[in-house]
Predict the structure of L-gulonate 3-dehydrogenase.
Amino acid sequence: MAPKNEKIGIVGSGIIGRSWAMLFASVGYKVSIFDIERKQIDSALVEITKEVKRLESQKILRGKLSGDEQIACVTGCTSLAEVVKDAVLIQECVPENLDLKKKLYTDLDKVVDSKSIISSSTSTFLPSLLSDGMKHKSQFVVSHPVNPPYYVPLVEIVPAPWTDASVVPKTKAIMEEIGQVPVCLNKEVPGFALNRIQYCILNEAFRLVADGVLNVKDVDNVMSEGLGMRYAFLGPLETAHLNAEGMKSYCERYCNSMWNVCQTFGPTPRFEGPVVDVMNEQLCAMTPVDKLQDRRVWRDTCLTHLAQLKKKMNN
């Protein structure tokens, strides 16, 4: 496999931007990373090199190119006009600050051409909110990754009401090319899909701790040793389908008990107050703050091996 002639522009050199850069470089795209400070770019390139080398040494590097070939695909610049020039896709990865993102898109709108896909990594802002008023708003789409993107393949592709019909399938094809698993929302909705589902789980986890039903570790075990084991391979709907003689049978059997339990869930928690302190204390006992990075590396390694197992099982 040889490097490609096509270019991807990455705006933002933080964790998400670096992870996207590694994904695009894994299939040979020429990747240019933009940041306003050169030292931030230099730091990002160093971190990418270290991570690619580590993954290659553990034989879990994605893509068919060697580590050195992938590293050579990634460069950096401090010019927004330069990073977007001739890019087939521009992936925005700046912090989740609405004013910052709106200013960026105002500046980007002045230098981007009519061919580039303008893609945001946002996890919270609707694409219509970010792109409203842009001259190139028909090229805009959200491509929301799951943190960390290099190790978790899902990408939510969310169009604005005015996104050109060709943008979503083009974006989907690029995401599939780099080994991600895109899901395409037919319309924008607050929280997209992943966070809407995730927030339901977090809400009930909070309530179970707040009500003294379970401690933090046991709540997490319910997911990691129970539901998560199934959900790593099957979603909740197919899981229900298999847990009876099909989905219709499942609903006929359990609709009343599900309804009755759900009536006891109580109000949506605010995630503030003394319960937060209780959860934080228990979580810090499990993983001290000064050990978080070690735990993240362990998590990422687990996710990589899980991805390899899923690929093997699906072949």
